[in-house]
Amino acid sequence: MAVIYPFLTRLLCAALLVLPAYACNATELVDRAVLSGLASDNNNDKIEAITALGQLSNPGAAAILAALGEGKVLVAADGTVLVSVAAGKALNPATGETVTSPADAQTVNMNNRLRRALQAAQASAELFSPVAATRLAAAVKLQKEADASRTPVIERALTQEKDPQIVLALNIALASSAIKSSDAAVRTKAVIALGESKNPAFKQVLVEILAKDASGGFAEPSAEVRLAAKKSLEQIEDHQTIVSWVGNLFYGLSLGSVLLLAALGLAITFGLMGIINMAHGELLMIGAYATYLVQSFFKQYLPGAMDWYVVAALPFAFVITALVGMLLERTVIRWLYGRPLETLLATWGISLILMQTVRSIFGAQNVEVSNPSWMNGGITVLGNLSLSYNRLVIIGFALCVVVIVWLVLNYTRLGLFVRAITQNRRMADCVGVPTGRVDMLAFGLGSGIAGLAGVALSQLSNVGPDLGRGYIVDSFMVVVLGGVGQLAGTVVAAMGLGALNKFIEPFWGAVIAKIAILLFIVLFVQKRPQGLFAPKGRSAE
Amino acid sequence: MKRRSALKQLTAVSLLAMSGFTAQSFAAEDTIKVGILHSLSGTMAISETSLKDVALMTIDEINAKGGVNGKKLEAVIVDPASNWPLFAEKARQLIDKDKVSVVFGCWTSVSRKSVLPVFKELNSLLFYPVQYEGEELEKNVFYTGAAPNQQAIPAVEYLMSEDGGGAKRFVLLGTDYVYPRTTNKILREFLHSKGVKDSDIDEVYTPFGHSDYQTIVANIKKFSTGGKTAVISTINGDSNVPFYKELGNAGLKATDVPVVAFSVGEEELRGVDTKPLVGHLAAWNYFESIKNPVNADFVAKWKAYAKAKNLPNYATAVTNDPMEATYVGMYMWKQAVEQAKSTDTDKVIAAMGGQKFAAPDGFTIEMDKTNHHLHKPVFIGEIQADGQFNTVWKSKGPIRAQPWSPFIKGNEGKQGL
Questions:
Q1: 20 to 30 A from A249, CA-CA: which of A187, B104, B232, B378?
Q2: Residues 66-125 (B) with a CB less than 8 A from some CB of A
């Protein structure tokens, strides 16, 4: 059930989108007395009206609820409730007339409390939808809002329901309110149902059953119920432990893949070519801004294909950053080969210049890069662990990039030359390798990969002139830890650091986790300065 | 004798030439110099650049109406580049070399702490426009942003109220530096006073620029299974975006676990895809969406100014709370100078107390007679899809600031200067 849940939500959203269209045709009238609560200034009155609307099995009422969620319900100065249908036009749901919306009409203000009531009201109406998916989603929503007043609605739905999955969901929803029943047998059944749901949301209810009151006696009189509650609680807690381990593993992998992407370009420019490139972070930033440009282009000229702008951004960002990288190599860096300190200073200066240039062109503020719709949300596994789509996509993307880099280095002429130059520059030169051109291309490749990483980063965090700053230290850390000159080392180091960080964080917090990682690296490099994977043989010199 | 005076003249000329890096210092005598000390580069540029621009707009506006005491204002802009020690250096340069009468500037608390000794030593005047943690009161500073009781405390009271969702458990989430630490200390005491137990409060900090909120969001999700939970976020400016994104992807909606933020305003939301944020809250003393004639005028003026000066992304220009505070602060300073008929620091400080100004927040707000803070109204807004705020709660009127929070021990009796 859990895995298909997001798809159901999408279906539900689709169903909601259709609703306003049919609201216009709704001829069923809604009683003025029910509506008047919406016009009140008091939120309690509004909630009462919303709940009442949810219990009417009337398409007109459902349309009003949908309109409320979209901020389309207006209240005229005389207290008449209207539903806005088009610019300047509004429908009076009490009379069914379409009128010109009065200029003084105010939108009914929603806040989180009203929205919660609205969701529950819509859910109780949707329990009777002909679409099974909608019914299931509604039942899951009702599980969250334990409220005895909904028991009759759920029971009514149960009598009609055939689908076993929905029956289960409804029973759990029922159980969360049945827990307060006066019949011990009903309570036991409810407690067992809650345990079977394995949903940690019900942990608190079970804890309360087991709690002792002030006089030392149990709050729950029946020993049988207490025993069942204890078992259910254990069931939920065991499940939670598994979930948090799997969760940490996933978070570690995902942090590792971000580190890997950020460091991969550097693994070529620093690892293979030995250039201390402090402007690496700014190449990431340029990649992210390239994504922004592509997004703006799509917004302007191809709004229909907005969902795929990220794919188009990949080659664009690669080319742009590769060109910037090659330009840097030709104009500045190549004059400084073999002088690491000067390279460090020069590239540091370049990084400042690049940042300020971007700031002058795009402004100091962050620019908006939105996730395409297929990267929003996530899938829920194991009941309540949500793996977000954008993280999953980035893990997959990081793997692809690693494979491509590996193929380029091992199976192309350029890769062969790069490896030859790494091993012995002068000898390579002697046998006719055009070292200057290969240097330029290799630096361009490293920069281009940084650009690809920038595209990925733009989907996770802010795109601003300072984007690169946060990643430069991490990137060097990964490359140094992995062993300079080793692609495999970079992969292992990135994943290892990611996982280590995420397994420490739940215990000590994010600040200490970061410090612990740095400390670990300092100690590790003391013990093993060549990194995890050291180059062997003559090339090690 | 003659020779000596010639020497003197020479020294004077060379001194002038040395200070001549800022072209403005050659300007005519009949202007009043106003220093602007905001980072225009570095990490804080995202927030502070617009404060510089709004200060320039206000100066233009005052000059167009004839200036102050018949003199035109002249801005001296320096860039402390988000570098805290550089703030102190630049402040000294403004006061000592450029001879400014007043400085408008700083954003982070650490930059303010860094310039304080300079303003005290040289007895000059600083207007600080940002909400902060309190626990400070200096004769040379006027605080036009909110103290904790004008922002944080009302926000938590709202979360505990029925309309705010009746939160019972609180996650205090912040970036690891002085403002979040102090605010959370105050909030923890406040929550204790409301009967919230320590086991229902989870205090979490992240390093600056943190962008991986997976574990924290998973923990919030777990924590929220123990009862109605709200998150109080003092996360610094742009780390908020990855946090909200993660929250949205993990399926935690504002209706389940509302987040109230103290550092997220219209300007910060500009660079953000607001879809996952809808329904989350922010507490400020001003929103662009507040409807009143003064604000409509202020917003229109700012948009026109941004367009006329061709500021980056002027098409989406927005106003926010610290911008309003800068604007109000500058007008109050103008009134005080006119009342004192002088720009002398001590005379202006004496005239500042009790100044009133019809502010864009819809109230005629007053500078407190003793504590150098403004009486400000409090607004709580929900983020809307268009990056603006929908006010869901507001205070009945302006609230007097308590820079020394009564929720921190040892502050009893520490009010006023």
A1: B232
A2: none
